[in-house]
Design a protein that fits this description.
Blueprint: H1 7-30, H2 34-53
Length: 62
């Protein structure tokens, strides 16, 4: 025989776990210091400039 479950409790538990996942994502994104954010931005800029410097097409007219 199948087990009887309370759908209201199941729905609330699912909502609770979804909120916990969302909170964890927000902590990763927003829970950084100013120095960490600046470092990440600097690294992204450096990587972008590095890739742009190695382009074969430099968008220059011939």
């Amino acid at each position: 025989m199948s087990k009887v479950i309370n759908l209201r409790q199941r729905r609330k538990a699912k909502t609770r776990t979804e909120k916990e996942k969302k909170a964890e994502q927000n902590r990763r994104i927003h829970g950084r210091t100013k120095a960490e954010k600046q470092k990440e931005a600097m690294e992204a800029d450096l990587a972008s400039r590095h890739l742009d410097g190695h382009r074969l097409d430099k968008d220059e007219p011939e």
